[in-house]
User: Fold this.
Amino acid sequence: MKLNTVVLNELNKQLSRIEACINLLSEAQIWYKIKPTMNSIGNLCLHLAGNEYQHFVSGIGNLPFQRTRSREFLENNGMNGRDLLQLLHDVRRQSSGILEGLKETDLQKSVTIYYSIEDWNKMLVRSTLETEAHYSKDIETMLVQVCEHYSYHTGQIVLLTKWISESQNSITGTFH
Assistant:
């Protein structure tokens, strides 16, 4: 099985977990922050959609760059659960078309990922402000990193859902 197929299958599994979480929660719970310095489930959903779009749709697919990363973490009740899921599914549809079209020879091609300079300088603690806001990676590495990033934040969403919901059911289909 090609890496792009493995990654897409894993991303779809994680999206199903997010959907199960969102469907258990009220709008207030989706945007609830355990601490002011933490992200809500809504913030994490916006972040995942933005990251996937930026890397797969814009980066690999060469469609217009449309992301303000810092805004994903500032929202505090901007969308209901249905709209968040629609956003995640819309981005996934776009990504799927791009990932399914990759050939084995494409995996070694380098892709440049652009950020706004403001977001770039806010992402990491830096001793000085940088003036270039991009990096380049081969598609193979990018597929693995975006998949890992998506899974990481999905785990946070599952944990937060267990923490704030009344459900005693398994969210992921496994008990642990």
Observations:
- Strands lie at 110-114, 134-138.
- The helical segments are 3-22, 27-30, 41-60, 69-72, 81-100, 117-123, 139-164.
